[in-house]
């Protein structure tokens, strides 16, 4: 970030002595700030941190470069799962943390409904009123026993879909969104293509067995990653119990979530169970701790609850939450030209906390500030930033985050009174 100096008429029209002094001052400032910029780029280590927070910025002055040692703690061991196919990913980055035959095409039973829910919220407002079509009555498998003509909101149906795994709710949603099961399945397949999936194909919205209905653990994790970007779905998936109307009468339906992890695993936030005799036990789970969200998927896993607990424990053990920069950790003067003060203090007014792999490269912070600024300066004006990178390999750097640097108070511009010669020049238009 840099500001190019703009020299106004008032400076140029001054006496030669004033002009010479001014340009000498600018030259000195330029040389000093170039020196600081070189330190910023070339400085290496100014302290280490093994837990929690970065060394105080006051220790690194203008260089803006710091680093961490890797954490000495070791991750939890994970040898394998009972699943035919499994995967664990970082929901924020998509990074694969554990894999086991993750690209095998397999049936996925009711975990299909994650895509059904995703299509629904991307197609209609959740307060859309739905009149249950005849095709949704008496559907095979799990059901909340919808009746023809019964009116519910799309949100009610989504709760039934994700908590009770209601196949009739899946059909009602599909008919409302697309008019037919086939058209809705085509919509699901288009969405899969948009997500870059090549080993996933849908023929229905509920997941009942069909040879042409399949996915992989990895691609099901990607679908879940997309679904978790919708707050309404995150809320529904993490709900343990919910009541919805029953055929417009005074009675209600009580919906209970079948996901045991919501009651037994800290930070669990869903997502979906599934089972048919052909698919075996299928499970998609997600959990969030200290800002880090993980997604685990198992297909045909006899011991899925234990598998997911082990996978999530393993994933969280690979990370630690670091406060890269506390509030007001960096504070420095920035030269001001033409102001009532020679400098203004700038600092960060926000903190930066990230969950990062324990096994990581060097983390560096660079201070980006202009060489100087011209008055006036407003209080709270953004003047620079702190940029945090992780060294991946060689010269490759991964951007982790950034914080803005703000002026802490106002600096007024100096008002110069014009000399007689300047007034005459202005009058004559010179």
Which descriptors would you attach to this protein?
single chain; 6-stranded mixed β-sheet; elongated; disordered N terminus
Describe the structure.
With 430 residues, the chain is of the alpha+beta class. The protein is built from eleven helices and 17 strands. The strands form five sheets. Strands 14-16-17-12-11-15 form a six-stranded mixed sheet. Strands 2-1-9-8-7 form a five-stranded antiparallel sheet, with helices on both faces. Strands 3-4 form a two-stranded antiparallel sheet. Strand 16 and strand 17 (397-407) form a beta hairpin. The model is unreliable at 1-17 and 27-72 (pLDDT under 50).
Write a short abstract of this structure.
This protein is an alpha+beta fold and 430 residues long.
Strand order of the largest sheet: 14-16-17-12-11-15
Uncertain parts = 1-17, 27-72
Based on DSSP secondary structure assignment, what is the total number of beta strands?
A: 17
Gyration radius, to the nearest Å?
A: 30 Å
Q: Which oligomerization state do the chains in this entry correspond to? A: single chain
What would you call the structural class? alpha+beta
Mean pLDDT: 85
Distance between the termini: 35 Å
Name the beta content range. Answer: 25-35%
Overall form: elongated
Order of secondary-structure elements: HHEEHEEHHHHHEEHEEEHEEEEEEEEH
Question: Mind summarizing the main beta sheet?
Answer: 6 strands, mixed
Number of separate helices: 11
Instruction: Report the helical percentage.
Output: 25-40%
